Hints:
Blueprint lengths: L1 H4 L2 H21 L3 H20 L3 H21 L4 H20 L3 H18 L7 H21 L3 H21 L4 H20 L3 H7 L2
Amino acid sequence: IDYSRGALDEGLRRVDDAAARAARLLAATPSPRVEMLLSKARGSRGMLLQGLGKDQPALDAFHSALDLALHAAAAAPDRADWQSQLGRAYFDVGYIEGTLVHLDAAADAYGHSAAVRERAQTLPLAPVAALQRDLAWSYMMLGEVELSRGRVDAAIADGNRAVQATTALRKRDPDNLDFARDSFAALYQLCQILLGAEHYDDAAAACR
């Protein structure tokens, strides 16, 4: 809420308090559940720090969140909610690494995010629509990074995967405005990639 209101310093104070409590609880009673709670707090800290323009501390916070999520999720690999959180932790690392133009690190993180989210969709009790939407964004962001790395074919492949995911969501719920916006974003990005690669016929077919 503080992030949405622009009260980033106050939000950071609240998150740091929550993280400190979770860290004390983890030290007293180690468990994957508490690790995942602390991972979420560290991820929120990274988001707030990035909003404050403190990129290096944000990077450290996001990597800490990922390390915790990896360890916790390994204890229960078939928990869809923890796999979803792991996918988010990878995504956050990809975003900050991309912001810092660490393109190889960003591509690696986004690639792992996509792989985790692909698998999570198949798990019992998985929120498939939410995971499919998250997956589309993993592929969209990965496509942007791959294009920046000069890997045009990989960028096109990722763009197509994002379009496929968002198209499936539109078919699932044609009246959902969020799904419609995601579908437009994925299609627009793919068209931009194809045009930039001078694949004009493919772009014309995709962008109708």
